[in-house]
TrEMBL record:
<dbReference type="InterPro" id="IPR019734">
    <property type="entry name" value="TPR_rpt"/>
</dbReference>
<feature type="region of interest" description="Disordered">
    <location>
        <begin position="658"/>
        <end position="680"/>
    </location>
</feature>
<dbReference type="InterPro" id="IPR011990">
    <property type="entry name" value="TPR-like_helical_dom_sf"/>
</dbReference>
<dbReference type="Pfam" id="PF12770">
    <property type="entry name" value="CHAT"/>
</dbReference>
<dbReference type="InterPro" id="IPR024983">
    <property type="entry name" value="CHAT_dom"/>
</dbReference>
<feature type="domain" description="CHAT">
    <location>
        <begin position="605"/>
        <end position="850"/>
    </location>
</feature>
<protein>
    <submittedName>
        <fullName>CHAT domain-containing protein</fullName>
    </submittedName>
</protein>
Amino acid sequence: MVFAAPGEALARARGLLDAGPPPLHGSVAHQVIGIWQRDFGDLRLALRHLRRARDLAARADSAEREADVLATLGVALVHAGRTRQGLAAFERGVARGTGHTRARVLYRRAYVWWVLGRHREALEDVRRAIPVLRQAGDVIWTARALTLRATVHLALGAVERADADFTAAQALWDTTGQEHDKADAVESRGLAAFRQGDIPAALRLLDEAEERYAELGTPTFMLDIRRCEVLMAAGLAPEALAGADAAIAELDGIGGQSTRKAELLLAAARAARPADDPHTAIARAAAAVRLFAGQQRAWWEAHARLVLIEARAATGRRSGRLVADAAALAERLDSFGSPAAPEASLLAGRIALALGRPADAETHLAVAARSRHVGPPLARMTGWAAQALRARAAGSGRGVLEACRRGLDVLDDHRMTLGASELRARATAQGAELAALAQEAALASGEPRRLLVWSERWRATVLSAPPTRPPADHALLSGLTAFREIAARAEAARRDGHPVPALEREQRRLEREIRSRTLRLRGEAPGGGDRFDPARLLARLGDARLVELAVLDGRVHVLLCGEGRVRRFEAGRLADAVTEAEHVQAGLRRLAHPGAAARLPLVEAAGRRLEELLLGPAARHLGSGPVVVVPPGSLHRVPWALLPSLRERVLSVSPSASSWLRARGTEPPPGGRRVLVRGPGLATGGAEVPELAGRYGTPTVLEEADAHVSRVLRELDGAALAHIAAHGTFRADSPLFSSLSMADGPLIVHDFERLHSSPYRIILSCCDTARFASVGADELLGLVTALLPLGTAGVVACSAPVNDEAVVPLMLALHKGLDAGLCLAEALRDARAAVAGDATHQATGWAFSAFGAA
């Protein structure tokens, strides 16, 4: 009962002890309390009760009872880090028990072998236990044994065998009322889905298991460890690190299992590495190594040492000793049958290359490269990274590019199984090394067109397909509605000067729930979409120029496309350009307020410096036609119209050349339907909207009280032109919750992702709508990047705070140009020239950019 209804079992056991039972019954009661404390509470109390249970079983002269308790005690001792005592208890338990009881003891010893990382012994004991349990008709323990065997198979990389055992166990669990065991089975299936590379399914199953555990009121430390693994693979390392550290604190608070603490420390160390926190990784991994060593868990200790060596190498501590340690670790992991062995070989090869020891590097990289054809996606990418490094060391540029292409193809297939745009974006970080190696080889080839291809291969890939839309997910829709209501109530309370901690807590809870549901969405399209063709781009450009900025080794390289060719120019250092762009943003913020005109020359001077850093000599070769700028993610806030050579031009910005080509090929919808939206609380009252309504004749106008999110979305779907005047809020911490304020609360990016076809052209006349969060390798998440894959061909948006009153004439002039048949970029250029020439109006014009190609 302790794994069907843990709380009730604990209460009954205590009640039985209060009644003064005979030794046999008292032994059972103390064992139940010991199990509960072992798995859900204080391990010290668990050991006290289990020793009492053992002594009472001996007094009752029941060998079978004593054997059963010894097995439970053995598990607790091992979890307490007393491995030698635990294994000795199992020896006595196996000797005392017979038949069915011995099979149960063997199952629990197999579990302990798994905890210790001794997988072959675990398989042997569970192999001996299962036939006896089946013959005895013991459904519950047979299902437990099958679940354990599946988990061991997963640790050894035998995913198909694990899947077969999980399926057989699930059929048995469905016939029982063992709710905790069932939750554990769901959790284990989540781990299996992860090992097969299905992250959305893994997240869904882990969430389901967590809900089941919550109903039972039991802790979830093993689930926390597994969720960390999945979050790291999904590119969410900071969240994984925070989750692991929180679980460690909770475990310490209840005096929980030492073995789980060691595993959580390892999970935290693994998460700290991709979270760019190598010092935390070193501290957590070193602590895990000490605990695993004390617990005699050699398999686990080896994995912790791998993370420790990786973290030390990341801090620049490279030496011949570190190469030898990594190589020895690879052999040890291979002897354990661990799928992590290629990672250790790759690490040894990388360090050897950095030390200038190519012969040693080749030895280790060749071993790592064997994994490129087998296993889950990330394991195959490890192999292709090793192959690319081998080719580079051998001086084969062609070999580098081929290995990078094959590795990124693997990642593309994996990425497109993810339905959420956030996961797709973050997954690109897994291929950052391959992309960098390919760009380096392309640059060395001296062929700008090849460098352009590889720059595009890894740029704005999240925009290559729309996110999966969940129209039938009523729970998600309900969550969005509740989130909007709570956010609106919180905002109203703030305006009235009232504290809102309870509303803010509920808003954060709903955000987590919405995000959790979207992360589970599965992608619909395999493959990475159409391959970029430079010839097609050059043919479509006409008299325009496309300027793609690639960053290699910290320096900006300008790829100037036009006149049927691609030319490369070297500009300044990226770090200097980012710093200068921040200064420009600060200047634009000041110019949004009256009385700051004296800063205008300073901002213009910064624009000239930015041009030198970002365009260099390419600025003199732009021709006289339109210009499309394709910046890296770190430069998304540059006000490109401020650069002297771009100031008077028809200028548009695109996340990638591929994205610009798709936008250029997008046809406007029939009917030319226009939608004008005016949200509440604007300083100018959205003054341009009434005038535009009169100019356009019969547009759809949604103003203030009528501008409800559901209706706004309904009208936006498939419109030819949408103009939205509403307060914009950018969320750097969670960019897909960036929003526009409507009458009933925020319209967030997740809402836009539910559109079947977003408007062909969108004008966002409010502040900060063109701000993005840079994630993954070089991906951008924000409002504009959410719209482009959904059918929007052109967006006008703002990357800085602006003067509300100065926006109105700019917007009216912009629409005048559109009425005359101009595209967004042409109309925006003319609008800048048409408005007043004072500092505030100039700064307002520079802050707006045209994105896309409509």
